[in-house]
Amino acid sequence: MRTEAKNEFEKEFWKLLINSVFGKCMENVRTRTSIKLVSSGKKANKLMAKTNFKDRTIYSKNLMAIHQHKETIKFDKAIYVGSAILDVSKTFIEIHKSQPGFFKDELKSIILKEFVSLRPKLYAYKTIDDTVEKKAKGVKKYIIKNHMKFIDYIEILNAFINHRSVEKKQSHRNMNFIQSNKHVVHSKTMNKLVLSANDDKRYIMNDGINTLAYGHYKLTK
Q1: Burial, 204: exposed, middle or buried (Cβ in 10 Å; 0-12, 13-18, 19+)?
Q2: What is the per-residue pLDDT across 51-95, written as a single tens digit (0 to 9) for each?
Q3: Which of 8, 9, 95, 164 is deepest in the core (most CB within 10 A)?
């Protein structure tokens, strides 16, 4: 159904429908918190004196939220199902590794002209008709569209390969966003790191391109 989606909403809907099953099966119920709102000092002191007290948030002179660890935990999540989903997907990838026809055609047979990848979920590519697609996880869409160019990805990669200064290996942009703090909405601007070739999930070789998984036998030599 997701492959037949005609707009972004339908695509995200089917993606969430699939991922939420896995996510709820793997949910850690131990991290849940009980929150109680109190308006009197006596009640607040009584709750904070309990052994399951975790934290408190003061909203005003007459309102406080008491965060408590759950007194009882019900283990009703099928963690074994989530684990099986993960194992089956990884096994499927390993079985069909390097086999033609099993790699998803993201461009629907449109010829890829250029591609630059800095690290997972941070890449850009250009097709034969000069259409440019840029991806950067955690960065607002308007920043990617209006304030990041294809050449920026290339320059960051070249700076990393040629072992230039840290400033050349990274790129920042001012990003505006709305944030709620204690139920009070604020408009903020943050100077966010948007481009960096430093992949901390893999060991990067001296050529700045090839990587090895941490624990690889070659890294012990």
Answers
A1: middle
A2: 999 999 999 889 999 999 999 999 999 999 999 999 998 998 888
A3: 164
pLDDT at residue 221, as a whole number: 67
Q: Residue 129: inside a domain, yes or no?
A: yes
Residue 166, pLDDT > 90, answer no
Could you list the residue range(s) of the whole structural domain that residue 33 is in? 2-95
Q: Do 165 and 214 lie in a common domain?
A: yes
Quote the CA–CA distance of 16 and 136 in Å, as a whole number: 20
Q: Are residues 18 and 71 in the same domain?
A: yes
Q: How many domains does the chain have?
A: 2
Instruction: Identify whether the C-beta of residue 192 lies closer than 8 Å to the C-beta of residue 139.
Output: yes
Half-sphere exposure of 64 (CA within 13 A, CB side): 19
Measured distance CA(125)–CA(115) in Å, rounded: 4
CA distance readout (Å), 184 to 4, 54, 65:
41, 23, 15
Phi–psi pair at 80, nearest 5 degrees: -65, -30
